[in-house]
């Protein structure tokens, strides 16, 4: 199994674990136990305690993976890339830049920007009169692996910081869109469950009213009718919410505030 395949398998296993927990087909016995529904990121945090970590990758087994257009390099950690000297957070180079970009609808996970210094013996950097150049990279303290943008080599560390920040923002937006869709799907499943419960409650109430209608006082009858109307109203609102989420999963962000 290649590193790329292993990472994909781990992501699949985390998603399956989250789905199993959310559908009540898997019981968690030890913590941390997050409130359902959980995302695959929360499933990842629970995994070592509730199951054997899937497709484990040892650092010694990691090989570098370069995209076909050679614009990105994926490695387990920055130190694994060729020519590595050191790396620093983009916001530490330029204090105007944020320390990270939020990549979840619910939660505080962020994607951070970094500037990696590399040594290139064949070239001389006129900015620092050395063989040190800079690349932009991104990482997260919540995910395995880092991304290095190899398509642009910078002579200026500050320019690399700005570029890294833009890439981190772009990655975070993409991750957040995917998380919105996931959270919307989870909310829809919960709404469907709530609708089913209301349906069962309403049918049982109507049945009791019909069976004992002659024994109820006018006041009790009015109260029961209002309860039935409330159930019908709640079911209508659930239908409206499901329809809205199917049309626009992004609404989940507003509803989660």
Structural account:
- The chain has 257 residues and is an alpha+beta fold.
- Among the domains are: 1-57; 179-255.
- Helix content is 49%, strand content 16%.
- The chain has six helices and seven strands; from the N terminus they run ααβββαββββααα.
- A hairpin with a 5-residue loop joins strand 1 and strand 2.
- Helix 1 crosses helix 2 (40-50) and helix 4 packs antiparallel against helix 5 (218-247).
- Residues 52-62 have low confidence and may be disordered.
Poorly predicted parts: 52-62
Q: Please, what is the average pLDDT? A: 80
Overall number of strands: 7
* Relative strand content: 15-25%
Q: Structural class of the secondary elements?
A: alpha+beta
Kindly report the oligomeric state of this protein: single chain
Biggest pleated sheet:
7 strands, antiparallel
**What radius of gyration results from the CA coordinates?**
26 Å
Helix content: 40-55%
Cα(first) to Cα(last) distance is 41 Å
Q: Given the C-alpha coordinates, what overall shape results? A: elongated
**What pattern of helices and strands is seen along the backbone?**
HHEEEHEEEEHHH
Q: Helical stretch count?
A: 6
List keywords for this structure.
single chain, 257 residues, alpha+beta, seven-stranded antiparallel sheet, 6 helices
Give a short overview:
By secondary structure, the chain is of the alpha+beta class. It is built from 6 helices and 7 strands; from the N terminus they run H-H-E-E-E-H-E-E-E-E-H-H-H.
Topology overview:
Elements: H1 3-22, H2 40-50, E1 65-66, E2 72-75, E3 84-89, H3 90-93, E4 101-102, E5 110-119, E6 132-139, E7 146-154, H4 157-211, H5 218-247, H6 251-255
Antiparallel strand pairs: 1-2, 2-7, 3-5, 4-5, 5-6, 6-7
Helix pairs in contact: 1-2, 4-5
